[in-house]
Design brief:
By secondary structure, the chain is of the alpha+beta class. It contains 6 helices and 6 strands. The chain has 2 domains: 106 residues, no CATH class; 60 residues.
């Protein structure tokens, strides 16, 4: 199960979220030309509860004792949100991600679990095909193994099998990137 943290836990109509973000706040938006805004809903989520706490406070209160206390026990102030079958579409640059789904969570119905090995193999094949369009050299064993590790890690994260900290650590070990 993929979980995120919200200050309110409310899925709002996507059309209203767009109006709020773009018209009221002047924020950027994702390409939604292939989405029926009327039939979708969204919610802003953070994967790490400590990142969500900042959304409970005004900027001038981020040094307050209340803020520091909330950081010590963030889950006490937040709501866990099930993100299975929701799609991340936009990041705010402060740790927040906008997830969307069909209104009423219709697409949260239990579905047959996919064959994970098959899914990873198919994705690796697609990646290999894309790479071969650009270059004529085949992937070597190290490259294939790296891609497989990345795909497995991403799937583990999406299924809630690793924490955000574990995800970052494993990604660093594979790609040598820092967060």
């Amino acid at each position: 199960m993929v979980l995120g943290y919200s200050t309110h836990g409310h899925w709002a109509p996507l059309k209203e979220l767009k109006e709020l973000e773009v018209e009221d706040r002047g924020n950027p938006w994702f390409d939604d030309k292939h989405i029926d805004l009327e039939s979708m809903e969204g919610i802003w989520i953070t994967p790490d509860p400590k990142d969500a706490i900042q959304y409970l406070f005004l900027a001038e209160d981020l040094e307050s004792e209340d803020y520091k206390e909330a950081l010590k026990h963030p889950k006490k102030y937040l709501i866990k949100v099930d993100l299975n079958w929701a799609i991340p579409v936009l990041e705010d640059g402060d740790g927040g991600t906008l997830y969307i789904r069909k209104k009423g969570g219709e697409n949260l119905e239990p579905q047959k679990r996919p064959d994970i090995k098959q899914m990873i193999d198919e994705t690796a094949d697609r990646i290999s095909s894309l790479i071969h369009e650009e270059e004529t050299d085949p992937l070597d064993g190290d490259e294939t193994e790296r891609i497989g590790k990345l795909l497995t890690l991403e799937l583990d994260w999406r299924q809630g099998n690793v924490t955000w900290e574990e995800y970052k650590k494993q990604l660093h070990n594979i790609e040598k990137v820092e967060f």
